Batch of 4 targets.
Target 1
Amino acid sequence: MLVTHEHYDHNAVGVVASPETVVVRERVGVFNLGPFRVKGVRLPHDEFGGRIRGFVIAYRIEAGGVSLVHLSDLGRRLEEAEARELGPTDIVLAPVGGVYTLHPRAALETAELLGARVLVPMHYWLPGMQLPLEPLDEVLRFAKKWRVVRHTESWIELGPEELPPQEERVLLILKPPRG
């Protein structure tokens, strides 16, 4: 289990981990975790260089011929050097709700900068939430170059053969786990 940062509203290690679970907390650099090659990159959680909300770790994970980048709670667009360090990648999980993280348009631009063929939006407003986040509709408003695919589950398996062609961009919306 990879922990990107210790904010109370994200970290549920105690709820989901078993005694056998390997938990890696905010680790920077390249390391192996079972069959996964992982690279942790420290990034600001806000647009002011981390001075307001601190820092997060974005993780690049490679296994089975597929690369994935989880951008955690990235608070601003990636800089070119950061994008080179994390990309290119096949799949990006990006926060898209604005306010505390990337604006929806910036999330799409960041995924493009990383060369992602698949963008999985996360950290956006859902009915019943008390956080002032943008809803998924706001992301869809800017996703004109992306083919939108709504998945019927809250999880998905993607191998190299399930990825779209290199020139295609897919916005993959997973079903929220509770609703």
Target 2
Amino acid sequence: MIIFNEGRKFMHKEIADLNGKLIVSCQALETEPLYSSFIMGRMAKAAMEGRACGIRANSVSDIREIKKNVELPVIGIIKRHYADSPVYITPTINEVDELMEVRPEIIAVDATNRLRPGNLTINDFFGQIKEKYPNQLLLADCSTIEEVVCADKLGFDFVGPTLLSYTEESKNLRIDSNDFEILKTILRKVKGKVIAEGNIDTPEKAKRVIELGCYSVVVGSAITRPQLITEKFTDAINLIQR
């Protein structure tokens, strides 16, 4: 059911239902113990039972399985490495084409100022996507305030500092520094919907970014990567033993 238009395009009710809510990132890399589309589908079901209102997922096979298990909007990505670019989150139109086979409600792409494979800028890539899939909702994964502002001006439906601290330009920054000062600045500078993601690893942090005015918050490793959750406990105990 299409319910509203805020100057960019009509959005579906399930997207509106993400407003002020939690999105859980259900992903596992090939090197991780939970790597399996079946497991990611069950992980998404567990997230839904915990009252998450959306899922972020990587790969066509995972998204297909997740959609069998839950009726929640999905932010879809494909992580793929190319020799001529450091960009790996939905880096080319080929990955967008693949994702359209399973129709995620939102597709997220790396929207940093780094060149994509084939030396495409984010402006070029955004134009490619919109020409081929004009009605597809898009999320810009950025690493700096400037990149978020540029993505917002380009016309992305959602923007966020997903890659903050993961790029050379942002490696010394933290999203939660000074009570989320970076997010506060972003919220002042953009008109689009801000989805907070990246190192938001406690319920208190998730609550805070929604209080500040973010449209939604994505939490991943703190919920869906048990090996990393376990490490926090063991590291704390080992500090006592030392």
Target 3
Amino acid sequence: MSLRIGIDLGGTKIEGIALAGRREVARLRVPTPRHDYAGTVDAIESVTRELERRAGATGTVGIGIPGTISPSTGLVKNANSVWLIGRPLHDDLRERLARDVRIANDANCFAVSEAADGAAAGAAVVFGIILGTGTGAGIVVGGLPLAGANAIAGEWGHNPLPWADADDQPAPVCYCTNRGCIETYLSGPALSADHERHTGERYDVPVIIARAAAGEREASATLDRYVSRAARGLASVINLLDPDVIVVGGGLSKIALLYDRIPAVWGRWVFAAGKGERVRTRLVRAAHGDSSGVRGAAWLWPDA
């Protein structure tokens, strides 16, 4: 049986997995050599070799990164791990490992994993979103990640929040320098900041959720605003992409009420919903949790 190696290159850790078919046979995690490009390449090679040693076989290699490879230059762009930007990571790893490698954005890898054998298994079109410290997303069509002509397909978080109302003003400034990006409303820090703007009290997301569950009016109002914004943001995705399944990962995916309340209202903004029609897109929580990224990197070689 063929072996697939997946590497998830994070800002603080590099995680690797070896899959024989769908079965995990080895896993390894090491610290990321931050701000050290050469050290990062060394670490990825070392993790790959060790996984293959443990598995007793040589495999294909897929890598998820917090950025993407520019189709124009072949260099890394849009990476949160800034020491990767402008570097020929694909070429360097292909030379170091003496084989081709496939590299994709980490959100795309998340979506690939869930489409392969996770919460969206068998779906033709999958939109995978990561709601955490940021708001990433990836698209999978027919089991393969959709990168796009500019390698930015799925960058949902850096579009403006649609159908904005008075509660959404003033539009927050995003790190990308624009105002009102979806990420500035739907990330974990954004939820906490919104609660603080309305109440003057700063709490982490789990505290807000617990207070809402206990019936606190202000916390409940914060979650109401969050649900409305998420429903509007995802309605725009349905209008453009019309996916079979939207899978949610990241820390905020643990908010159980999202999976009932968002689909209950997003039809208001989905084109042609109503009049006897219903929105057929499913909203589901990721099945593989924190492992989706590294598993999806391995599945960048679905034909192996």
Target 4
Amino acid sequence: MKRREFITLLGGAVATWPLAAWAQQPAVPMVGFLTSLGPNDRPNLREAFRRGLSDAGYVEGRNVRIEYRFGGNQHDRLPALAAELVDYKVAVIAATGGSPTVLSAKAATSSIPIVFTFGGDPVREGLVASINRPGGNVTGASFFVSLLSGKALGLLHELVPNAAVIGLLIDPRPPENVLLLSDAREAARTLGLEMLVLNASSPGEIDAAFATLRSRGAGALLVGAGTYFVSRRQQIVTLAARDAIPAMYSIREYVEEGGPMSYGNDVADGYRRAGLYVARILKGEKPADLPIEQATRFELVINLKTARTLGLTVPPTLLARADEVIE
């Protein structure tokens, strides 16, 4: 073989080999992460989701790609964002941050698997057929926070036993909050308390709700669950401190901001388990066969410093049940 022919043959082999080798590599799956939150809201939840994926062998940027879509607490943006992920042909959609996100994803596709994190009852809301056998293309982790408001109200009553009127700050938009309101009202009747229901879904309405609390002489406040209130937690905690009103919150982030007490699920653990479910689907399992993950970890967090500032004495029985006490 002539030298020129040999060089030409060798060059062609070198140019062709990487393409052939690349073609034999397994495709990197793409996961859609749809949330009603903004990109700067609660980044620990996205980290928990990625941790669940990683625990099952999928590391972002290495063998899985994640396309993020943020609703920025504007629910009307979610349907278009869900449609974008469908157009991208993602392998799975993680629909997080409440029922508007899940409903948007479900409306966008009946074939792409959807794994949700959700605070309500997914059967009651029509997301799945049953807890053990979801059916269809939807499964996920439910916190059932709508059914914790009664328990939270009881704990708040222990902290402020002389408060006869207790406010309930609630976002009326998420469907699951109908159950939250019902559960809280039933607990108030049982405890012999008057409940003042305050609807709010904007910063101005939150300000107005606190003005109503002052005018009605409410002795304590129960803040309902939901991603919107979490995004406004600094405003809510600041207003409660200004008016010296003891408040019970749904997650620990409020207490870390200076609120006196919270009771609810370990939300980050729910996101981690959603990541595990996404990984199982990427490995070939079907969402219809994956039972709804139900919350098993609940936490009571008390900020003693804030309680003292409010002139409250936390009962020893309440302290003994706390999962964490912030001094």
